Amino acid sequence: MPSSWKRFFYTYKQIIALAYRVSPSLLILVTLLNSFWGLTNLPVLYINKILIDVVISSLGKPDWLVYLKPLILLIALRSVIELIRSVMSRYSYRLGNNLTKRISANMDIVLGEKLNSLDISTLESSDFQDKYKKVEREANQRVWGMIDSLSEVPNAFFTIISAIIPIISFNPLIGLAVVLVRIPEAVVNAKLAKKEYQDLDKLNFKYRLWGWINYHLTNSKHYYENKILGNTLHLTHKMQDLQQEVLDQDYRLGMTRATHRSLADIPNFLLSSGLNLYFFILAIMGKITLGLAQMLYYASATLGAGFGQLFNNVSTVYENYLFVSDFTWFLGLKPANPSGHLTPDKKYKEGIEFQNVWFKYPNSPDWTLKGLSLTINPQENIALVGENGAGKTTTIKLLCGFYPPSKGKILVNGHEISKYSADKYTQTLGVLFQDFSEYPFTARESIGYGNIAHLDNLKGIKQAAKQTDVHDFIENLPLKYNNPLTKEFDKGIEPSKGQWQRIALARTLFRKSQVVILDEPTSNVDPKAEEEIFDKIIKLTQKQILMLISHRFSTVRRADRILLLEGGKITEQGTHDQLMKLDQKYARLFHLQAKSYQ
What we know:
It comes from Candidatus Amesbacteria bacterium GW2011_GWC2_45_19. The chain has 22 helices and 10 strands.
């Protein structure tokens, strides 16, 4: 079997499995309703034939009342069938619409789960982002488009069966001709579908840029700067230009499709008109009844519509498959750095060791870390200091396992990080990133997410809030710990930057991890409060490894050991007093910063 067909059937299985997982009863019910609807075409055709023949045979006869009873029965039967078809159509639409919404809702979960299971190096790749944004943009409608078309195939199949029976019994060649004139349309649709996919693929970057501009225009966190800078008009013009280019291409593609489809329809219209004339000439000549002529015409039209629907469904399935195959590609992605299987010990006995670690980011020509070597003992607190770009945050990222070292090893409690189960290893880390998350949910959740297994432990959450001096702020909110932390929700408030930082720090401390990593944890807090918070943090983490990154040298003085990073390697290390006596770069930076406070 060709690889393209294998890919198609693999994608088909994935999508049907997804729909079945979401709601098996709805999927089955929609398919059955569509099938039965197509099958009811046959009795309607025969009833119409009999009706016309009965009426013609009763014309001019004095005993016409004899024909009234069968007429009433036939019309009543046809009305019942048409009512059933109408009801089925309505229910099929509603059920399909509900299934669409369920699939769309589930897609958000599937995309979110998968995205967060991948490694950082994959997520930050420009090529991945281009393709993922297309998946994110197209997946919902394309997945349902594929499922909907597949569920319509039984309808088309049974419509064909209903219509082909009278045609074959009269003249099989007519059925063959009806099928042949539908093939050009199917070929055109398939070619145009592939062309659309290729054209949209070229616009991935523009769609992504469009999304970023929209984010800066519509996200509340950008309102203040937009108003001050007065850049709204510039951004809207920039987005208009992008939209114009994208939508113009969509317009051209749509017009091309309409033109080609119209040309492909011409043979079908010519054949339909010819068959209509042929059947009624036979009726005039007395070779067939008028009812049979009418039935044969409608049967040929229904047969053509059935094959047209089938080909269109197949074409639509193929069209959506091209986009959905990107979705299944995304679902099939594996982390670039497979997780190990070791479970970390409950207590670290050997600490952390960087052995001649070199690292540079993908697509970067320069090394960020150059032979970094350091050892951190269990229960030791250290501070990393240095100018911007020295490699402080990169060191933390490697310790978290976000990237593997390009060269060298990182050992945690005697084992390389890659040997540990990624999920279990990260459970031992409590990290406050410089660009931390601001959860808009309740204050309880915003702190409790630090240890999701203990989200209901309000006492522990309050204790963490007290440790970072944010408890009183939360207690004064209208709903206290159940208060939303955004103005966009009812009774919600917007914490200040300093309050957000205290909440994020409380979330990190609530985690009760073996390693606590704080990257600029009090950059938005005033110096007096910062000193108080650090005193508490050092006391609270006496039995843990504490790694602190800070540009404020007044706070790092309390660390057991201070490491100065320059150009991706450690150039000085020791206590504050030792480094001041050394009177090298650290001492100069300390004096320079102290001078700015005088």
